[in-house]
Prior knowledge:
neuropeptide binding, globular, disordered N terminus, mainly alpha, two-stranded antiparallel sheet, neuropeptide receptor activity, 77% helix
Amino acid sequence: STLFNYQFLLHPEFYVVLPIIYSVICAVGLTGNTAVIYVILKAPKMKTVTNMFILNLAIADDLFTLVLPISIAELLLRYWPFGEVLCKVILSIDHYNIFSSIYFLTVMSVDRYLVVLATVRSKRMPFRTYRAARTVSLCVWLLVILIVMPFTVFAGVYTSPEHMGRKTCVLSFPYPESLWFKASRIYTLILGFAIPVSTICILYTMMLYKLRNMRLNSNAKALDKAKKKVTVMVFIVLAVCLFCWTPFHLSTIVALNTDLRMTPFLIGVSYFITSLSYANSCLNPFLYAFLDDSFRKAFRKMLECRPA
């Protein structure tokens, strides 16, 4: 959220546009994800393995949108007034947002693959329980916390001598800073994109191959209607996540391989890419409501006006 901070100071119009964009993402994301959390926890029929992963995805998105107002305040005030501890918390949650979504979607893809595999082989999966999904979700959270820990260590308040002692919340790397910066981008690219996305692509390729062979060798349907709908929903949620996050990671590849001079256009593109990645946190609830009947019914029931 603090990319190109000093160049950004030269363009005051960003101080108006970005807070508006972030405020919309915050309001929509907080409302939608809180509704998803409420529906899953409140409705007994919603306690399924897939919904346990969706619940954790919504919690991760909600956590991010909850702290977004602090980033908005920093933009409006044009400096960081909240101290060192909160700086570490905010930048850590900012990085949780990078890793948590894709890792929960990877787990959901593994789950979909196992469901398809069991269906193709006409086998039951006694180990696939709501309790097991809860344990797996906890393991994902611990893994993400471990991955994000280096960013928590390097997060800090930087006082700029060039801008009258203006304080900003940034990743403060030791000397040589450029080498550490490149290492952090490669680290994020590999762990936050290359490994999980490759895993997901392999899983979906194998899944489609098995379904295709099933159709060739049997008249029976590879998946019943409900399982097929859930698989399609997971695939679309994944596609939207990749649409929002791929430009962010592609910009990393560009930053590592070129030495571009920062221009107003490039600064604008950088913030557009960041805003697009942030927007992913508010899109998923709409996808669930549009693609899943049980979510749609639960949302509708929640919005019903009941007489006092």
